[in-house]
Amino acid sequence: MEAMDKKLLEVKEEAKENNEVMERKLSEAKRDMEEIIANKVKEGIQAYVDSLGINIDANLTLEQVPDNPFEDCQQPFSLVPGVHTRKSGNWPDPSVLEVS
Asked: Which residues form a coiled coil (predicted)?
């Protein structure tokens, strides 16, 4: 009976060690996959940005970035090109609208 208990204890220890080894290998594989995925995402984003013809300089410092990048815009904002809502006086007066 003691021989069986000893053998059972050995099998349990071996299973525990195998489980720890397997968990360690799975953890390493997960880290490797996360790194591979992160690199692929970076490559995909870079390819997309390149396809748009945008050049992003990663070495820009805060002083090189303008405070207001929209200051150089020369055109006034308009939802529809050629329509200036400030000049249009054709809007009905809401106080005189009839309700049917």
From this structure: 1-39
Copy the structure tokens of residue 32: 């490797």
Q: Give the side-chain half-sphere CA count within 13 A for 32.
A: 6
Could you read off the pLDDT of 28-48 as tens digits, one per residue? 999 999 999 999 999 999 999
Rounded Cα gap, residues 48 and 42, in angstroms:
10
- DSSP-derived secondary structure for the chain: -HHHHHHHHHHHHHHHHHHHHHHHHHHHHHHHHHHHHHHHHHHHHHHHHHHTT----TT--GGGS-S-TTTT--SPP-SSTT--TTT---PPPGGG----
